[in-house]
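Re: beginner question about structure tokens

> Can someone show what the tokenized structure looks like for a real chain? I only ever see the sequence side.

Sure, here's an example I had lying around. Input first:
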Amino acid sequence: MKEYLIIDLLESVISGEWGNEPNGEQDVFVLRTTNFSNNGKIDFSKEVVKRNIDEKKVDAKKLNYGDIIIEKSGGSIDQPVGRVVFYDLRDDTTAYLCNNFTSVLRPNTKLVNPKFLFYFLFYPKFRKYRSLKT
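And the corresponding structure tokens:
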């Protein structure tokens, strides 16, 4: 069986965006870590903010079904950094991006099933392992 580094299983890593105050033009939804639930799902019942972001950035960074969003900063004692959620919307009519405290891990579907990679990253023992310094 061939072994892979996680980075080798990704098509791309996409940084989050915050943009500017919404003005009614080029406004898009931006997911924040407040929209992360502890079960790995996105909580759309909490306010999803709208921000004004350049159309080219939206095209390059909008979320696709199967993307994994990882928290890269923020957190607290009760909510450690590194939480992940799975983007499972298939609606292409509404663009969502993630904010600048997160990154998108876009799996290479030729090498890995996105849900499998998500569960691997979500697995609690891996979270503990991931926080160890080498």
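Each token stands for a local structural state, so reading them left to right follows the chain. The CA atoms of residues 5 and 117 lie 11 Å apart.
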